[in-house]
Design brief:
The protein has 492 residues and is an alpha+beta fold. It has helices at residues 4-9, 17-33, 47-58, 63-71, 74-77, 82-103, 114-128, 131-146, 153-173, 177-191, 193-227, 242-251, 272-285, 327-335, 338-343, 347-355, 358-378, 383-388, 416-423, 425-429, 475-490, and strands at residues 234-237, 264-269, 287-288, 294-295, 308-313, 319-326, 397-401, 407-411, 431-436, 439-441, 453-457. The chain folds into three domains: 4-189, Orthogonal Bundle (Hypothetical protein af1432), CATH 1.10.3210; 193-335, Beta Polymerase, domain 2 (2-Layer Sandwich); 364-490, Beta-grasp domain (Ubiquitin-like (UB roll)), CATH 3.10.20. It contains 21 helices and eleven strands. Strands 1, 2, 3, 4, 5 and 6 form a six-stranded mixed β-sheet that branches. Helix 8 (131-146) packs parallel to helix 10 (177-191), helix 11 (193-227) crosses helix 12 and helix 11 crosses helix 13 (272-285). The protein is globular and about 95 Å long. The chain starts with a helix and ends with a helix. Bound molecules: manganese (II) ion (MN). Manganese (II) ion binds at residues 48, 72-73, 140.
């Protein structure tokens, strides 16, 4: 387990004294709360919140988020309550921890229907209400995926499936590429074990064959760039991701030789201008492959990704991909949130964006600028910044469950009457009462996000009450009520 000192050292730029004290307090508080508890792996339970916090420190989150990550399982799994957390660590931390507990109750329940899944993802984001909650949940899931071997095969498949269907798409939308790839690879391993093994073997083989010229190309390029006095911040053979490799194999009918970017060289330089200069130098050194030069700096990908890509005939004429970008672009590709949040290529998400007012959209775009300048100035992001990234895309939406776990998407202020008509007309017409989270409520009750709504019907009931028109919110429910009332009158 990482000691407090080791955990704090994960951050490139150290936290100030006040923040160190705050994180230390949470570290020892959570350690004590989980004392004596063990994970299924046999390690102390506290390893889990520490690993979760570590991922978030890597992502550059502020001290409130790190404190919340350390405490995230305290109310759920120990004798201490959310009130205790609030008393010791304040309202903001308690708010984040509460969000994590709430979101933790959402379960996939073996669903495969794409509309249902999309609603589930939306609900997850809506309930989280704060982007930090989502990021902590993602880090939490990453650690749980890393220790999935302790569970039964049935449980492994169910958790891996949920990871692939809910967490991977959300991580992708938030642009946390590095975490998304890790989650995807871990889920792949459990969901398709045979294909996974085969992909690992093919990938290792191919990388071994290519490692020699990748290394040589890196050396030759370093020399050429030095001569041109270009400062290289980093140059690496890019990490491999099995699931992405597997998808490319499928696309290219399992022909490894056709996958040029299996081993890419990534060059990080200080400025955009340097990027283009490096591209020129790379092309002087090696012949580029026609049609494979991609300028994602001038024309970023729909999810905001920026970089220059080129495929070259490297040492001994072997094909290699080279990626050139600045540190900010590199950071955004791995952990950048706001940029991807705004430019997300995901269609349904975009549709939602388009429904928003233009000013709001511009405000979102300001985040991107702010994010960039904060990267430049501080090399990390403050709590204020993360706090301001509230999830309000779903402001006018609520998501409620049926007792069987189906998600119903409703407008804000919707009532059990709207809920009933959203399920089935007959359900609405025969409605006589409702329970929310197992408590009886009146039919004009405003449903809240995450409520479980149970409807009580009366088979003999002939028509809805006229009163319902006073509070039913959806057009669908209102027109069904009017229709049923008309029909009922004409029957007399
Ligand atoms: Mn946890």
């Amino acid at each position: 387990m990482l000691s407090l000192k080791e955990l704090l050292a994960v951050r490139q730029k150290p936290y100030d004294e006040k923040r160190v004290a705050f994180i230390s307090k949470a570290y020892y508080f959570a350690q004590k709360a989980h004392e004596g508890q063990k994970r299924m792996t046999g390690e102390p339970y506290f390893v889990h919140p520490v690993e979760t916090a570590k991922t978030l420190i890597k992502m550059g989150l502020g001290s409130n988020s790190i404190v919340a990550a350390l405490l995230h399982d305290v109310p759920e799994d120990t004798d201490l309550t959310l009130e205790d957390v609030k008393k010791e660590f304040g309202k903001e931390v308690a708010f984040i921890v509460e969000g994590i507990t709430k979101v933790g109750q959402i379960r996939l329940r073996g669903a495969t229907d794409e509309i249902y899944l999309e609603n589930l993802r939306k609900m997850f984001l809506a309930m989280a209400a704060d982007i930090r909650v989502v990021l902590i949940k993602i880090a939490d899931r990453l650690d749980n995926m890393k220790t999935l071997q302790v569970h039964s095969r049935v449980k492994q498949i169910s958790i891996a499936n949920e990871t692939m269907e809910v967490f991977v798409p959300i991580a992708n939308r938030l642009g946390v590429g590095e975490i998304k790839n890790q989650l995807e690879d871990l889920a792949f391993k459990y969901l398709k074990p045979v294909e996974y093994k085969d992909t690992v073997r093919r990938s290792e083989e191919a990388l071994n064959v290519r490692a020699k010229y990748t290394k040589r190309a890196i050396k030759e390029l370093q020399k050429a760039l030095k001569q041109e006095k270009i400062e290289i911040l980093n140059i690496v053979g890019r990490a491999k991701h099995y699931y992405r490799f597997y998808q490319k194999l499928l696309k290219h009918e399992m022909q490894v030789a056709e996958i040029y970017d299996l081993s890419a060289i990534r060059i990080i330089v200080p400025t955009v201008e340097d990027c283009y200069r490096v591209l020129g130098i790379v092309h002087q050194q090696y012949n580029p492959m026609i049609g494979r030069i991609k300028d994602y700096i001038s024309l970023p990908k729909p999810n905001g990704y920026k970089s220059l890509h080129t495929t070259i005939f490297g040492p001994e004429g072997k094909i290699l991909e080279v990626q050139i970008r600045t540190r900010e672009m590199d950071y955004e590709a791995e952990y950048g949130i706001a940029a991807h949040w705004v430019y997300s290529g995901d269609r349904s998400f975009k549709d939602m964006l388009f429904r928003r007012k233009k000013e709001e959209l511009n405000k979102q775009l300001d985040w991107v600028k702010q994010l960039r300048s904060w990267h430049e100035e501080t090399g990390g992001l403050s709590d204020d910044f993360w706090g301001s990234l509230k999830i309000d895309f779903f402001k006018n939406h609520i998501f409620a469950f049926t007792p069987l776990g189906d998600v119903i998407d409703l407008p804000e202020g919707a009532t059990p009457v709207d809920f009933a008509y959203a399920i089935h007309t007959e359900m609405g017409d025969t409605l006589s009462g409702a329970k929310i989270n197992q408590r009886i409520v009146s039919l004009d009750y405003a449903i809240r996000n995450g409520d479980v709504v149970e409807l009580i019907t009366e088979k003999k009931k002939k028509a809805p009450n006229e009163d319902w028109l006073k509070f039913a919110k959806t057009t669908h429910a209102r027109s069904k009520i009017k229709q049923a009332l008309r029909k009922n009158r004409s029957n007399f």
